[in-house]
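Researcher: Next entry in the queue.
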Amino acid sequence: MYTITRIEGEGNYSNIYFDNGAQLLVAKSLVEFEGLLSEYDFIWVHKAHAVNVKQIKAFLKSDGASLQLKNGNVIPVSRRRRDFVLEKLKLTQTKAGFIII
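Model: Structure for this entry, 101 residues:
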């Protein structure tokens, strides 16, 4: 079984990215996933990105804000959600094992 690392919305479609490098395009908007994944440690970091908290390696403060995932992907964090994301990550920092840079 593979773990979902993130979901990227593209209008009425979403790309689901897995930890094995695979991706799946589905005919469902990112908003439709919000209710489905809220209990599975996903946070919405941008209007087009939801990220699995357990897959975060680092919070990068330089040039705005972004998240580096364990697979090396860097995901932007919107200015509007920056404080919320940072607070959520601080609460789960010891459990998830990521760093804030």
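Model: The beta strands are 4-10, 13-18, 23-26, 42-46, 49-52, 56-60, 66-69, 74-76, 99-100.
Researcher: Noted, moving on.
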